[in-house]
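User: Please go through the entry that follows and flag anything odd:
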Amino acid sequence: MKEELKIYRLSPLAKPDDPNWQNATYQGELIVVARSSGDARIVAAEAELDFREIDAKPAEGVTTDMASAFRNDKLYTVVEEGPAPAEARRGVIGGKVRVDNIISTQL
């Protein structure tokens, strides 16, 4: 059975100068194909650079996915836009995910 995917829009709730952004990079709006609104946050977070891809070390655990601004409901809201086309795959389909969310220790 093929899973039912939907299109979701992740939009910033907080203004760019909001203090909640102090530990996150302001990324603007993102459109994803996902299973649910919670999965949409995960899809967006997975698209960001993870410490394992550079020479940085995480503060906790083995990944930085949990620290993503996309997972913070004070920074982003998720709105269902409708069903995804039958050929759509889970992932980011609109907007731009920045890759400067983690800074390398090498210059």
Summary: The CA atoms of residues 14 and 97 lie 17 Å apart.
